[in-house]
Amino acid sequence: MSQTTLTFDTLTATIREIFLKAGLSPLAAASVATIIAAGERDACKSHGVYRIEGCLRTVKAGKVVPGALPTLEDEGSGVIRVDAANGFSSPAFELGAPVLAERARKLGVAALVINRCTHFSALWPEIETLTAMGVAALAMCPSYAAVAPAGGTKPLLGTNPFAFGWPRPGGDPYVFDFATSVAARGEIELYCQSGQQLPEGWAVDAGGQPTTDPAAALDGAMLPFGDHKGSAISTMVELLAGAMIGDLTSAEALDYLGTTTLAPHHGELILAFSPERFSGSRRGDPFARAEVLFEAIAGQGARLPSQRRFTARRKAMADGITLTSEEMALIERLRSGGLVAVS
């Protein structure tokens, strides 16, 4: 299998060209391209170039406005709201993030609500943006109904990712980002493409029976991680990042889209915290105390979350990002054909 190695900047520019041709604004094209290229850079294949066609398919279906311009609503309180205007979520987040971080430093805690957005990516890019601004952050969003609740057999909940980050001055932040389903839906789609069977316990088929067939899983329902625990956390995400912020739940998002082949449309909730304001210097520097905890974890031989991703990032930035011939063929097909080339 032949391979091609590109720099991060070259890959980003190539993807940006594809989205500009599809009608995205320069702001949206650059933002979406950077996130997809970051997925490849960090060896997160399910959020890399594989996502390009799904985004374009959503544009072609008229379920996302490619040239949408987000607007910020800020009354000076602890809640900042950005209307994504039915566009992609990343430009809306970029607009609201600096205000969120500043407000958290001022008040101790603040929330960013993004409404009417299409969110196709992992949450760690948003989390890392905020930790780089010196605040701890928590992000969550629904998806579209693809997961059965614990004890259920039909799709009702989304994969409903949940992410957290803690800044570590002088080093990589502490970040975790996971779906509340056993695996992200993109992982099952990649299993389907490769013809591999799923691990047991990931999904049920349309009849509610356990299955390891990825195609049957996509027609049926995924399962929450940790059974009732994952189901409860997923339900919390539906409530906080759906009902509470006046946006779509996963079931409502699926009704809006009519299919699971498009990127989900919903809202997003991001919370930011100032460790300094919360600690008030009691018991010392919160960042120094956090390092004691991280060192104790590593001292037992345990791996902090995202360490593999950060290692992959450093390697990719030094040696380039390697894509397969199939991935390059996809990029070239979409770059030359645009929306016409999208199935």
UniProtKB/TrEMBL annotation:
Top-level lineage group: Bacteria
Alphabetized InterPro entries for the sequence: Mal/L-sulf/L-lact_DH-like_ah, Mal/L-sulf/L-lact_DH-like_NADP, Mal/L-sulfo/L-lacto_DH-like_sf, Malate/L-lactate_DH-like
GO molecular function, one term: oxidoreductase activity
Cross-referenced Pfam families: Ldh_2
Alphabetic keyword roster: Oxidoreductase
Gene3D superfamilies given in the database record: 1.10.1530.10, Hypothetical oxidoreductase yiak, domain 2
Family in the record: Belongs to the LDH2/MDH2 oxidoreductase family.
Stated name of the protein: Delta(1)-pyrroline-2-carboxylate reductase
Organism of provenance: Pelagibacterium lentulum
Source lineage: Bacteria, Pseudomonadati, Pseudomonadota, Alphaproteobacteria, Hyphomicrobiales
